[in-house]
Amino acid sequence: MASDKPLPFAYQFAAGAVAGVSEVGVNDKAYPCDVHSHESEALPGSSADLALRYPLDVVKTRVQLQQGKGIGDEGYNGMMDCFRKIIKNEGASRLYRGITAPILMEAPKRATKFAANESWGKFYRNLFGIAKMDQKLSILTGASAGATEAFVVVPFELVKIRMQDRASAGKYTGLIDCVTKTVRNEGPLALYNGLESTLWRHILWNAGYFGCIFQAKSLLPTAIGKGQQMRNDLIAGSIGGTVGTMLNTPMDVVKSRIQNSPKIAGSVPKYNWAWPAVGTVMKEEGFSALYKGFLPKVLRLGPGGGILLVVFTGVTDFFRKFRADRGYPS
Asked: Hey, which residues does 117 pair with through a beta bridge?
């Protein structure tokens, strides 16, 4: 059973990295691909989990980038319609375009998430003189961890969004080409386009995720043994992932549009700042447009939140036993 006492930062960071790799589904063979080449070449070393879940992210992005309702053969009227038309019009390999960016991102992203959550929790407990975490503090630490995590992921997210967009099919040949052309045409700071909307997206998701985990665990039967602990973690993490996705999908929609809008000197992009962009989408397309891509997103991040927590808890328990066996202070 995991102890309430946090591990040192380095162990939390390592455990988060392992959890991130497990959630993405990268196996021990890794991905024997050249990042200059087309991302579909990365598939031979992947697990079935990644093969099933990454296409959901591509579909989510395509639906979010579509302004208005899908019309004709190039429009998308939902998740299954998007899947069908991508495969029919572009080939199945397009469902894996941009995959290199999340492979490179996932370990540092999740490592930062969990390590920052523990560090912020310690900081706020000392600041407010609170001995143990409660739900309000879990929400606050989760939001702070999300803000920290956002700074790590923005360049990876921007590249992924631009690679996934149908309009970029002939524009970029791979991750390095996308980064090179973005920096050359828009400047190095363009890699941080959408930072503000990414901050909001991660603040909302992590606040919902960690806040729900605390509440769900308090309502579930007390775990006896590792099997029941894994069950509780899977349930609590999946609930947290689902609620976090419900909270942050509007910010994910506008983030996708902001990051896919290249900077052009002398012009102001239609989607520039997060909350004004939310207002623009609502005014032009209705409230429901803020939840475009919700189904593929929640199918990926709901169970993914449970897997993350199970693996993170398992790895931190291993590290605690490792340190105890060697006589390190707890």
From this structure: none
